[in-house]
Design brief:
Length: 134
């Protein structure tokens, strides 16, 4: 009945992202648009790579993926997971970007490293990060 789709992708940042400003900018745009479009998800950054999960109505998340893929702030967008889901994994967040803390940082790296070999587990790690940040 729900008809929800979850998509995860990895990509490489085209500019140094250590500037929190850059992430803050992306986050600001994302939260406004995603709230409007009924999209939820999570975004982490580690070792020059992004891992993002987006979820919502299939046509909405596919449109968002197309828009985000064209964003010059990153490149090499590779979808690692595309699946129907019964319920949202990130229902409470229009887009959560977990804060970089000593406990969170190794998990962010782990999530990015797991994205290709085991994307479902990578999404699980993102959920833990989101919960830690809540
Ligand atoms: C790694 C990354 C993740 C992004 N995630 C989202 C997102 O979840 N939602 C969104 O609307 N835009 C996201 N963006 C920004 C879009 O690429 C695009 O700049 C923005 O949606 C345009 O918004 P506007 O049409 O309101 O100007 C992301 C960009 C990057 C680089």
């Amino acid at each position: 009945m729900s008809g929800l789709r979850q998509i995860a992708y990895i990509s490489r940042a085209t500019r140094p992202m250590d500037h929190l400003q850059n992430i803050a900018e992306i986050l600001g745009e994302s939260q406004t648009n995603n709230w409007r479009d009924g999209v939820t998800g999570a975004l982490v950054f580690a070792d020059g790579r992004f891992l993002q999960v987006i979820e919502g109505r299939p046509e909405t998340v596919e449109r968002l993926l197309t828009r985000v893929s064209a964003d010059p702030r990153h490149t090499g967008v590779e979808v690692v997971l595309r699946r129907p889901v019964e319920s949202r994994g990130f229902a409470d967040w229009s887009m959560v970007v977990p804060r970089i803390t000593p406990e969170a940082e190794p998990l962010m790296r782990q999530a990015v490293d797991l994205a290709v070999p085991d994307p479902v587990r990578a999404v699980g790690v993102l959920r833990r990060l989101a919960e830690m940040d809540a």
